[in-house]
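Deliverable D2.4 — example input (structure tokens):
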């Protein structure tokens, strides 16, 4: 009888405990309803959905988006990732909820190639990023400032056309010439002069080919899927060798930046009170000495901003023009229409000028269509959700890395 009493007592306590736990669970679910996450494939342990991403990540994500819709959630290693692949979804992340997703995750590319997140592209959202953006808009990209550099663009474009004319009748690798002209323009605007040699008879800190290779490597390393970024406990192994390449690239850019900045600082020191900034490095170095800035700029800050300006204005422009020429060569009737517009508006007695662009709607449409079909960046750098958010009825948790936005391509 005593044993039976103990069993009954134990069963009673078990039932009471289960009832209590059920009540607590029900109350918790009522106060915390289950999250409505975006659709997506089921992740594997450890790697998540990295097994679904091929050598061209944007194409892999496009195929997945066709199955799961314009907003989907994947898991890359240890982190949830939301992918937006329609114009409306991109607008939700980049405009409607811009503040929530304005920050960036910490990646190896940001740490090693942009001076520990001190450029605009990889800087986390906060006072430093806001100040950098303000500097870009008010000091570097103002209409007055850009107009003051028009003579540089004119000189380099005419030199570009002269080189092409001299090669008439010969095969031409257009991308090399486009890269050269855009790099020359940006170097003079940002650095004050071309710091690379264009022939074997010139001496400079780097050759044109070396500097172009450095920029190509910078673009590649900022777009790779580095395993250590997504599975942190594997980071120290550098399985793909990307971190080693990033460190080597940083040393090359350091050598280049140090040479450029030393020349600029010597010039500033010699003029002192009468110093007037002539280029964007002059402006940034002057701002670095400004005690009234909300966040003090240091030497690496100037390097990060300078690198942003050089990289952002070279390969992107050259690639877009190359795609435009490729599309036009496949459709000669478009070349005829563009030529007719140029003859009618400009004539053949003078060069096209920047002020003529508003009067050339057909050529403007060609460039816009080129950028629609061939965006310079098919994937945006990952953002970071700073707080929980609801986007189009789906719950996005704090710490999620959205949006890996695929630029939407509509049929023509």
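Example output (designed residues):
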């Amino acid at each position: 009888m005593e044993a039976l009493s103990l069993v009954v007592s134990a069963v009673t306590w078990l039932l009471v405990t289960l009832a209590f736990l059920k009540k607590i669970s029900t109350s918790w679910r009522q106060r915390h309803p289950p999250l409505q996450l975006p659709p997506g494939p089921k992740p594997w342990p450890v790697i998540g959905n990295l097994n679904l991403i091929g050598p061209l990540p944007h194409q892999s994500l496009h195929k997945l988006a066709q199955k799961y819709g314009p907003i989907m959630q994947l898991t890359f290693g240890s982190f949830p990732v939301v992918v937006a692949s329609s114009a409306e979804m991109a607008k939700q992340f980049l405009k409607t909820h811009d503040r929530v997703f304005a920050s960036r995750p910490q990646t190896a590319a940001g740490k090693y190639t942009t001076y520990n997140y001190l450029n605009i592209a990889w800087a986390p959202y906060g006072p430093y990023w806001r100040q950098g953006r303000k500097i870009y808009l008010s000091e570097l990209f103002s209409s007055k400032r850009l107009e003051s550099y028009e003579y540089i663009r004119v000189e380099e474009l005419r030199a570009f056309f002269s080189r092409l004319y001299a090669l008439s009748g010969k095969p031409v690798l257009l991308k090399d010439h486009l890269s050269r002209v855009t790099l020359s323009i940006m170097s003079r605007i940002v650095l004050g002069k071309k710091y690379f040699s264009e022939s074997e008879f010139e001496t400079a800190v780097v050759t044109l080919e070396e500097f172009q290779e450095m920029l190509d490597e910078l673009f590649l390393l900022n777009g790779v899927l580095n395993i250590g970024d997504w599975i942190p406990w594997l980071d120290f192994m550098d399985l793909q060798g990307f971190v080693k390449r990033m460190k080597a690239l940083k040393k090359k850019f350091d050598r280049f930046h140090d040479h450029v900045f030393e020349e600029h600082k010597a010039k500033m020191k010699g003029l002192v009170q009468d110093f007037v900034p002539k280029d964007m490095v002059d402006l940034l170095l002057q701002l670095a000495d400004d005690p009234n800035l909300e966040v003090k700029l240091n030497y690496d800050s100037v390097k990060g901003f300078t690198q942003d300006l050089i990289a952002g204005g070279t390969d992107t422009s050259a690639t877009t023009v190359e795609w435009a020429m490729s599309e036009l060569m496949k459709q000669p009737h478009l070349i005829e229409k563009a030529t007719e517009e140029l003859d009618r508006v400009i004539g053949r007695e003078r060069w096209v000028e920047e002020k003529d662009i508003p009067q050339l709607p057909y050529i403007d449409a060609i460039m816009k269509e080129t950028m629609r079909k061939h965006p310079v960046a098919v994937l945006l750098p990952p953002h970071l959700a700073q707080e929980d958010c609801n986007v189009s009825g789906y719950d996005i948790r704090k710490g999620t890395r959205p949006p890996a936005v695929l630029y939407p391509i509509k049929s023509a």
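The chain has three domains: 1-32, 35-105+382-412, 106-309.
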